[in-house]
């Protein structure tokens, strides 16, 4: 969502401030979109690689999280799962499919509020 | 984005987040939900499944994975796995209802949110009115002023709350949680479960086969 810049000389209205607050604490109906990159190495089949992503929005509890692998197709791991999504962020993880020096997946995450 | 629908029989509906996907159906989302991709809501073909679907499972306490989008997977040649995870483990604190103060006519004066801020949908608008200032009254500092027909007015903006209610997805997600528990799907404590689609399993097997081939080649 594009922000409307406040111009010098104009009165700063509540709406100007709220557009910033609404990014830092998403209100009902909005989304946060970003990228993640999960990468690690595996010493054994089933070894886990994981990543905690802190969301920009703090204080609002997401309804859902969508993860895709558009940036980097999952390699030596399945597409990441997640076991925790809270008002602060979410935890991504995947178990390796074999012994590998480079287990990775990356894409877009969308948190819906 | 959230669960768009759930009926008593355990049939659920959701949509794909990807605006280029035929399953992108933001027209089916709650009317207050903003699509991050476009202003006009698009009507695609939503995903539908029964909660007994093997890919619908808990991946963590209060987190339910839905099946990966088959269209995104196919169009990317098997590289893009797009999956939605629903938050169904909502705490009592998050679910605390707001305190809505009304006047004698039922108009909402204020909404005090006590639970998660985004669980309460507040519909509001700003009304602008002009208050005439006479020659004896000094305008408040910083007030926006305007003149009309030779008279001085203060521009006053009133914040009007039209409606306030619990976000509808909250109940749908709680219903899903209850229905999954009823058919025996539960999160395994102290463990995080992965959900892997059959298509991904075959890709993983191919990768393993290639790794083995490489290893054998190196051994000569």
Question: Which helices and strands appear, and what pairs or packs with what?
Answer:
The complex is a heterodimer of chains A (113) and B (220).
Chain A: H1 14-24, E1 31-42, E2 48-54, E3 64-67, E4 72-75, E5 81-85, E6 89-95, E7 100-112
Chain B: E1 5-6, E2 11-14, E3 47-50, E4 57-60, E5 63-65, H1 70-75, E6 83-87, H2 92-95, E7 99-102, E8 108-112, E9 120-133, E10 144-148, E11 151-166, H3 168-182, H4 198-219
Antiparallel strand pairs in B: 1-2, 2-3, 4-5, 5-6, 7-8, 9-11, 10-11
Described by strand count, sense and barrel closure, the largest sheet of chain A is: 4 strands, antiparallel
Q: Please identify, by name, the CATH architecture of chain A.
A: Sandwich
CATH class of chain A: Mainly Beta
Radius of gyration of chain A: 18 Å
Unreliable segments of chain B (pLDDT under 50, ≥5 consecutive)?
none
CATH fold-level name of chain A: Immunoglobulin-like
Kindly state the number of beta strands of chain B: 11
Class derived from helix and strand content of chain B: alpha+beta
Find the count of extended strands of chain A (DSSP E, 2+ residues).
7
By DSSP (H or I, 4+ residues per run), the number of helices of chain A equals 1
Helix-strand pattern of chain A, N to C?
Answer: HEEEEEEE
- Please state the structural category of chain A: mainly beta
- End-to-end separation of chain A in angstroms reads 14 Å
Number of helices of chain B: 4
How big is the Rg of chain B? Answer: 26 Å
Summarize the main sheet of chain B: 3 strands, antiparallel
Which oligomerization state do the chains in this entry correspond to?
A: heterodimer
The residue ranges of chain A in which pLDDT falls below 50 over 5 or more consecutive positions are none
């Amino acid at each position: 969502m594009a922000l409307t810049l406040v111009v010098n000389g104009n009165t700063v209205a509540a709406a100007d401030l709220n557009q910033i607050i609404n990014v830092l604490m998403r209100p009902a109906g909005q989304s946060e979109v970003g990228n993640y990159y999960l990468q690690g190495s595996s010493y054994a089949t089933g070894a886990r690689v994981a990543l905690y992503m802190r969301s920009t929005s703090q204080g609002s509890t997401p309804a859902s999280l969508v993860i895709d692998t558009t940036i980097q197709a999952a390699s030596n791991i399945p597409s990441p799962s997640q076991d925790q999504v809270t008002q602060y962020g979410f935890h991504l993880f995947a178990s390796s499919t074999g012994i590998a020096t480079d287990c990775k997946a990356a894409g877009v995450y969308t948190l819906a509020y | 984005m959230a669960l768009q629908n759930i009926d008593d029989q355990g049939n659920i509906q959701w949509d794909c987040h990807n605006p280029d996907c035929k399953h992108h159906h933001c027209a089916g989302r709650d009317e207050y939900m903003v699509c991050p991709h476009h202003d006009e809501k698009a009507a695609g073909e939503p995903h539908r499944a029964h909660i007994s679907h093997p890919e619908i499972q808990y991946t963590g306490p209060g987190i339910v994975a839905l099946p990966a989008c088959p269209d995104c997977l196919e169009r990317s040649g098997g590289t893009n796995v797009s999956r939605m995870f629903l938050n169904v483990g909502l705490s009592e604190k998050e679910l605390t209802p707001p305190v809505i103060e009304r006047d004698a006519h039922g108009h909402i004066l204020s909404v005090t949110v006590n639970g998660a801020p985004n669980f309460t949908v507040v519909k509001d608008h700003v009304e602008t009115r002009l208050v005439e200032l006479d020659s004896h009254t000094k305008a408040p500092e910083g007030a926006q002023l305007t003149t009309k027909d030779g008279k001085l007015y203060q521009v006053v903006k009133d914040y009007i709350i039209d409606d306030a209610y619990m976000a509808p997805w909250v109940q749908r997600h709680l219903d899903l949680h209850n229905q999954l528990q009823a058919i025996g799907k539960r999160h395994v404590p102290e463990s995080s479960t992965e959900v892997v689609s059959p298509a991904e399993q075959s890709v993983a097997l191919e990768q393993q086969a290639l790794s083995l081939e490489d290893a054998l080649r190196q051994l000569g």
